[in-house]
Amino acid sequence: MTERTDGSLLRARGLGVALGGREVVAGLDLELRPGAAVALVGPSGAGKSAVLRALVGLEPALRGSLRFAGVELVGAPDRAWSPLRRGVQLCWQDAGAALDPHLTVAQLLDEARVLMGLPRWRVGSNELGEVLRRVALDPSLALRLPGSLSGGQRQRVGLARALAAEPALLLADELTSALDRPVAWELVDLLRGLRRSGLGILLVTHDLSLLPGTVDEVIVLGGGEVVERGATAQVLGAPQHTITRALRAAVPRLPG
User: Fold this and answer.
1) Can you give the pTM of this predicted structure?
2) pLDDT in tens, 198-222
3) What residues have CB less than 8 Å from 249, skipping those under 6 apart?
4) Which residues pair with 11 in a beta bridge?
């Protein structure tokens, strides 16, 4: 891995993403460091998922700069993306579509490790059981197929699969959208613990209530452009843009 002198692992400068010849994200600056967390928030259609796909090379129409471990990737050949794909895991919002329906939970986690060149975990191993417990799943589910699980369970399997690959960075797209609140908060606590162990996180969400104490910086997208950004307490405590204020107003509150 190329040596980094500033501590950054993934950095975008003026990044633009085009789909079907139309630019859907423009001028994005983003920096992800080990042990740090950034939230990317915004209404539906703001371009959040397009950013995630671009950051792992699934959207080739890029302009600007995207560097991983100091290596420029915009315009680079496909082989230049290999270190990023070994070090970054994307946890999809629709876990049901992202998981092979013919593989058991144990096989899904095993596949992720094999693709990263890591040793396999046998069914019943302490390592397999531990990663499932970390995402609030019973290890007895290891032999189940995704189709036999609830939507929330599949979402947690998707996160367990990402963690099984031992990434340096985790990109999480609406990680808690299919979960009830108690389990959602369990996973938020897990993310906080993962940060302490050195994992860098980019969290895409519309739920601002999850962000305090979880992320350092909030970036607000609207219409494919950054409309507001800053430290979490600053953006949530005194939002300046109408989009940010609308997102904050949508956070559920108890009456009285």
Assistant:
1) 0.89
2) 999 999 988 888 899 999 999 999 9
3) none
4) 31, 67
Amino acid at 185: W
DSSP conformation class of 209: G
Q: Note the pLDDT tens digit of each residue in 170-186.
A: 999 988 877 788 888 88
Q: Is 124 exposed, middle or buried (0-12, 13-18, 19+ CB in 10 A)?
A: exposed
Could you tell me the CA-to-CA distances from 197 to 26, 58, 251 in Å, in that order?
33, 28, 29
Asked if 159 and 187 touch (Cβ cutoff 8 Å), the reply is: yes
Q: Cα–Cα distance between 60 and 75 in angstroms, integer?
A: 9
Residue 80 phi, psi dihedral angles, 5° rounding: -70, -20
User: Diameter of the chain by CA atoms?
Assistant: 58
Angle (CA) 223-227-228 rounded to 5° is 145
> What is the token pair recorded at 239?
């939002």
Q: How many CB atoms lie within 10 A of CB 198?
A: 11
| Both structure tokens of 84 | 């990023």
How far is it, in rounded angstroms, from Cα 96 to Cα 104?
Answer: 13
